[in-house]
Every structure is written in structure tokens, then in C-alpha cells.
Amino acid sequence: MLSDKALLAKAIEAQQRSYCPYSKFKVGAALLTTSGTVYFGTNVENASYGLALCAERTAIFTAVAAGERTFEKLAVVCACESGCLPCGACRQVMAEFAPNLNLILGTSDGGFRTTSLSVLLPQPFLPDHLA
Predict the structure, then answer these.
(1) pTM score of the predicted model
(2) What does the DSSP assignment read for 15-60?
(3) Per-residue pLDDT reduced to its tens digit, 70-111
(4) Which of 113, 117, 97 lies closest to 105, judged by CA?
């Protein structure tokens, strides 16, 4: 299994591929699946702002498209001094697959803190709520 620092380094690598000509706010993500594969994500903006996609969801959707459904941990990095917090939409997408996902919230200079999705999203809307 990758260490938190190693996964964070992969997220920093992904951050450099960000397409953010409007906000200039580069975000990178690296998702470790239970199979041991790492999927990268970066934020991708669009001139029609509402069509932008966050780095976290890019990584998750890429993993799902590859057939992965179980996730171990996700590193997210941006230029924020306190570490990059996922938005509400990303938190809800994470909860679909891993309500207790371990998160590494990092900064571009390698600093980070760890938490879990269950702390950031204590009452997610889950598939069993549809019954």
C-alpha cells in the first residue's frame, strides 16, 4: 500500500496537469483503490463555468470507468495553506462508493493533514435511501 506522502506526491503531479485558465486554481487528486491501482484527477474548467469538473470527481469517474468500485484513500492537493477541502458535490460522489474513505488534504509544498469522509460528510445521501 502507498504511504500518505507517496499518494500526496502523485496528487501534486496530477495538479500540474490542471486546466484552469479562468480561476488559475490548480487542484490535483490521486485515488488509491483497494486493488492497489492509483487513478489521477485534475480540475478541468470550461468557458461555460457550470461545466467544470473537480479533480476529485475526475479521479473517481476515471476509476469507475476502468471498472473499479472500492476505494482505499484519496489525496487532494491545492494551493490553500490549510489543505484542499473537497466541495459538497465531490463529497457526495465519494460517499456513493466509500462513505468512510480516508482523505489526505494537502498543499502544493507537501504539507498535509488526514481525515475521513465520514467526518466531512456525516450524513450522506446513500443508495439505500432510495428504497
Answers:
(1) 0.95
(2) HTT-B-TTT----EEEEEETTS-EEEEE-B--SSGGG-B-HHHHHH
(3) 999 999 999 888 889 999 999 999 999 999 999 999 987 889
(4) 113
* Phi, psi of 116, deg, nearest 5: -130, 160
Copy the grid coordinates of residue 115.
481525515
What cell does 128 get?
439505500
- Nine cell digits for residue 45: 474548467
Q: Of 21, 69, 65, 67, give the one whose Cα is nearest residue 41.
A: 65
Instruction: Determine contact, residues 42/56, Cβ cutoff 8 Å.
Output: no
Calpha distance 118→90 (Å, rounded): 13
Looking at the DSSP assignment, which residues form a beta bridge with residue 56? none
Task: Tell me the pairing of strands 102-107 and 38-42.
Answer: unpaired
Give, in words, the CATH class of 4-130.
alpha beta
What is the grid cell recorded at 44?
478541468
Q: How many CB atoms lie within 10 A of CB 119?
A: 9
Among all residues, which ones are annotated catalytic? Answer: 56
Q: Provide the residue type at 34 as one letter.
A: T
In the chain, where the domains are located: 4-130
